[in-house]
Amino acid sequence: MIEMMLTTALVLFAIAIAIALFRIIRGPSIPDRVVAMDMIVVNLISGIAVVSVLLETKAFLEVILILGILAFISTIALSKFIERGVIIERKRDR
Questions:
Q1: Entry pTM
Q2: pLDDT, averaged in runs of 10, over the chain (94 residues)
Q3: Can you tell me where the transmembrane regions are (predicted)?
Q4: DSSP 3-state assignment of 57?
Q5: Is 6 exposed, middle or buried (0-12, 13-18, 19+ CB in 10 A)?
């Protein structure tokens, strides 16, 4: 019973990722695309967690942690780029 529920969750995560890919391709604006990429990463993290439960292993927990950190940093960097046009501002004395 639990395996069927977890498999159904994986299928639903895959559908959500496909919808987010559609939003990235056809998104009306850049912020919509950034949110869709963040949504893909969240669904990917959730899918990896479900696979970890299905396989009864803790081997994927480090992958989940690293993917979450990278997704957070990339979302912040893209948001700063959209807002200001640069990611890292440098003060010039000249």
A1: 0.82
A2: 94 96 90 91 96 93 94 88 74 68
A3: 6-25, 34-54, 60-82
A4: coil
A5: middle
